[in-house]
Amino acid sequence: MTTSTVPGTDHPEERGIVDLLVADRGEALISWVERVEGRELVVTAGQDRSQRRVRLEPGQRVELVWRGPTELRSLPAELVASEGGCWRLRPTGPAARGQRRAAVRAPLSLAVRATVGSTTLSGTTVDVSEGGFRAVFPGSPTGAESRRPGGDWQVGDVVDVVVELDTGQFGAKVEVIRRHQRTDDHHEVSARFVGLPERVEDRIRATVFAGLRDLRRRGLV
């Protein structure tokens, strides 16, 4: 940006992944920093969690959030132009410590085990973020009794899970917030983490960003 600014601290680094927070949207958008030009940043047009590009008008205020060397960082900016699938952003203030107001979600297949009493179900995530996951579990585990008639997951259930990351597994409690209709006997649910320590959130976020970088390298996002 200028000779006195520090990449990664005062602004996101080139080729880095950033969250874009827009005032009138309830979720973070995903974007990549293409290049830094003078006092402006050129980033890819933000994508929502369904990987659809979002359209914004010039003048729209956004907040960039990224992982700095030691903490989350944020930078307020204004969209000044849309250029061939990219947005040109001009900072409107200094960078500051970022807040965890939104969680970027990535389509990753991670092994997850859910335990209720003596029943354990082994499933796979469809997508995951530091806020929770969407996962598919078998309808009924072999040799295990259903925990309620039909073995259905219910919204509001709080269960213990173990999720496998590249850096090792972690255990947590999750609350089921949505059930998804399926044509087979499997259960597909969305769940949010309950009381997750910040160090575990950091591990999940690192896994999500690494997964997104790999998907982009392969041309899948």
From TrEMBL:
Known InterPro entries for this protein? PilZ_domain
Name used for this protein in its record: PilZ domain-containing protein
Q: Give GO MF terms, alphabetically.
A: cyclic-di-GMP binding
Q: Name one Pfam family in it.
A: PilZ
Q: Where is the PilZ domain?
A: 99-209
Q: Which domain of life is it from?
A: Bacteria
**Lineage start:** Bacteria, Bacillati, Actinomycetota, Actinomycetes, Geodermatophilales
